[in-house]
Amino acid sequence: MVAAELVCSAKGCRNEATRALLWNNPRLHDEVRRKVWLACPEHEPSLGDFLRLRGFLRDVIDVADLTEAHG
Asked: In whole angstroms, what is the distance from residue 21 CA to residue 24 CA?
């Protein structure tokens, strides 16, 4: 992915994302499927807390480590 395309997933935020939050909803997705939310440094904690509270957060990685396999 090109860095210019990596924008934070927080509502209304247009900042460049630096981290990728990998998650799934076990009620809807099989165990190996991962969805990706991108986060800027400002929104990583709040997005992560939202997913963690619901038991959806599986991993957090640098956007530089994202591959096509991540979606």
From this structure: 10
